[in-house]
Design goal:
This protein has five helices and five strands; from the N terminus they run H-E-H-E-H-E-H-H-E-E. It has 166 residues and is α+β, with helices and mostly antiparallel strands. It starts with 8 loop residues before the first helix and ends in an 11-residue tail after the last strand. Strands 1, 2, 3, 4 and 5 form a five-stranded mixed sheet that branches. The radius of gyration is 15 Å and the shape is globular. The longest helix has 17 residues, at 54-70.
Length: 166
């Protein structure tokens, strides 16, 4: 069950259309969409499902608003995945799928040796989503400078040097 504030994404995105960075809490159905998208990748590997974390979502929401102000991607230093797309062009599930599509290069080695390309960055979003010890996720979204930004924070974070994802 996902417990989220009732502020709507639509209201926040409308403000974003006016040129102001806009932040909005994910509505319960949107939070469920993002959570379900993550858990489909985990289920395919018989990994335990992630659970929604309101504190992680609040932190992710704040960072998404920051990115919307900047108009570019930048990591906060938290265990996180970031996605950006043209405003209104992608559903939240499609943005999560950008991370999931990295599985085509993923190998279950010892981090950072987890990519068939030889560069862990090519699979780092996917490996975070399927990191066995990760049990919580919380996400936020914001629109600014013509872009939608999705930020998901994970607890505990994955992509730990010297550990295997699962």
């Amino acid at each position: 069950m996902v417990a989220m504030p009732k502020r709507g994404l639509l209201a926040g995105l409308v403000l974003g259309l006016l040129g102001q960075p806009a932040m909005a809490s994910l509505e319960p159905r949107q939070a469920q969409e993002v959570l379900a998208a993550h858990n489909r990748y985990r289920a395919a590997l018989a990994l335990p499902a992630l659970h929604w974390s309101a504190p992680l979502a609040e932190a992710a929401e704040r960072w998404a608003a920051r990115l919307a102000t900047l108009g570019r991607m930048q990591h906060s230093g938290a265990g996180e995945n970031l996605a950006m797309g043209s405003a209104g062009a992608y559903s939240l599930g499609q943005l999560v799928a950008l991370w999931g599509n990295e599985r085509r290069h993923f190998v279950n080695g010892t981090f950072p040796a987890v990519s068939a390309t030889g560069n862990w960055v090519d699979v780092g979003h996917y490996s975070q989503m399927v990191w066995r010890r990760t049990s919580l996720v919380g996400c936020g979204v914001a629109r600014g400078r013509g872009q939608d930004f999705l930020v998901c924070h994970y607890g505990p974070p994955g992509n730990v040097m010297g550990e295997r994802p699962y």
